[in-house]
Every structure is written in C-alpha cells, then in structure tokens.
Amino acid sequence: MYTYRPKRFYITVFAATWAFWLLGIFFKNEAVRMTAMLLGLISPATIAIITVFTSQSKALKKDFKRKILNFYKLKPLYILGALLIFGAIVLCSILTSLLFGQSLDQLSFTEDFSFTGIGVCSAFATILLASILEEVGWRGYGEDSIAQYHSWFKESIIFGFVWACWHLPLFWIPGTYHYEIRQMNWLYMLNFIISVVPMGFITTWVYVKNGRSMLSSIIFHIFINFMQEKIAMTQTTKCVETLMVTVAAVIIVLTNRDMFFEKRHIGHILE
C-alpha cells in the first residue's frame, strides 16, 4: 500500500515556488521576473508529477491518469451546479454591494485584464495555464495526501490555509493581480487570503462529487478565475463576495454532511 507524505510534498512545493517567486520580487529585469513567475507557477504540478511517477506504486500512477484522462466519468450536473452557484455568488455580491454605494455597472464585462500575463502569454492564457497547473498539483497529489489521513471537512480547512499561504509572495511581484490589489489597499490583500479558505470547501465538493476528477476541478478553477477577472466587480464588492462564498460553503457542507464528515475513505483513497 502506498504511503502519502503530505508534509514532504507541501514543504517541497513551498520551497520551490517561493524560491522562484522571491527571485521575481528582487530582480528588476522583466524577463527574469516573468521566468521566475512561470517556474514558481509550474512547481506544484511538476512536483506532483515527479512524486507520482517516481513512486513504486502502480495504484498511485493509475489513479493519477484516471483523474485527468477519464473525462467520460465526469458528472455534468455537479459541474453545472458549481458554475451556477459561483455565478449566483457573483450576482448576489454585486447586488448587495449597492448598499455600500457600489454601482450596478459592475454587471458588465471589463475591457481588459487587471494584470499583464506571464512572459509571452496573454493574461487570458495565463489564467488558463494557472488553473490547469494548480489543479494538477493540488488535485494530482496534494489534496489526496491530506485526505488520506483526515475527513474531507478537516482536509478542506487544512488545504484552504495552505493554498492561501502559497499565494503570499505574489503580492510583491509587479504585474500580478495580487500586487495590484495590495497597491490599492492592504485590506484587499487580506480579503483575498481569507476568501481562499471557504473557497477550498467548494472546490473540494466539486472534486469529490466528480469522483476526484482533476478535469472537473480545472473547469471550475478556470470559470472562477475568468469571472473574477472579466466581471467588473470592485474590490469592495469582492469583500462582500468573500461573505457570500462563506455562506455558500456553509450551505454546501450542511447539505453534504456525509461527504464532508465520513471517514470511510481514510487510509483507502487509492481503493
């Protein structure tokens, strides 16, 4: 039986990602900074793939391939439901923000993205790349490595905090979305970090309900990133959105108690 090693995985991922991103912070040369950004971004996926395919476990390798290739096992209704839920979160956030003096003009698409993209990649290509690479890393090995020892509820809490912390160096790298919001107000930076934790529960729900499919998580991640960038929400509204995401996460947990609190899968992820 394969033994998951979450501590080793996350320490390696953080060491690699942050080492590259620290170069992006301290080097002024744009080519160096963008290269460092890209190398940091691909670190979780790279380390997950190396961890899986250098293991002696046929079950682990087979499971990885299944999660990314078996698209016919996706459950479209759950994916559609997740997209509609997040769309409703955005709509409710905008409408609620009117109470705080925000404009209804937010119900429109922005003309451009809030960041420049990585190297030769456009901002849209960067969103696609980031969504795919993050999910291959987190869902390819990271999330399961925690769930092997904990309920999905506890796993979602642990992973949510880890995922939030992973983003931290981005707030000091010029050209990133994270850098731009930190420049506006440090409270917006704090809001982003906080929002990642409840979002972790929703992404876990999508992942597990689709038979632990990386493809479902990739689709959902791309949709979230696109909506966050192209819907003209202000940062004030995104603070409201964090509350809405938290409410949605609570409802999802309460209506899926068996999934989040069962312990039948513990020690048996690969089975």
Structural account:
The protein is 72% helix and 0% strand. The protein is mainly α and 271 residues long. The mean pLDDT is 92.
How are the secondary structure elements laid out?
Elements: H1 6-26, H2 30-53, H3 58-69, H4 76-97, H5 123-147, H6 152-166, H7 177-184, H8 186-209, H9 214-230, H10 235-255, H11 257-261
Helix pairs in contact: 1-2, 2-5, 4-9, 4-10, 5-6, 5-9, 6-8, 7-8, 8-9, 8-10
State the gist of this model:
The protein is mainly α and 271 residues long.
List descriptors.
271 residues; mainly alpha; 11 helices; 0% strand
Give the uncertain stretches in residue-range form. none
Q: What proportion strand?
A: under 5%
Nearest-angstrom radius of gyration?
A: 18 Å
Query: Whole-Å distance between the termini?
Result: 10 Å
> Secondary-structure element order, as H and E?
HHHHHHHHHHH
Q: What overall form do the CA principal axes indicate?
A: globular
Put simply, the count of helices is 11
Largest sheet: none
Nearest-integer average pLDDT: 92
Strands, count: 0
Helical coverage, percent range: over 70%
Secondary-structure-derived class:
mainly alpha
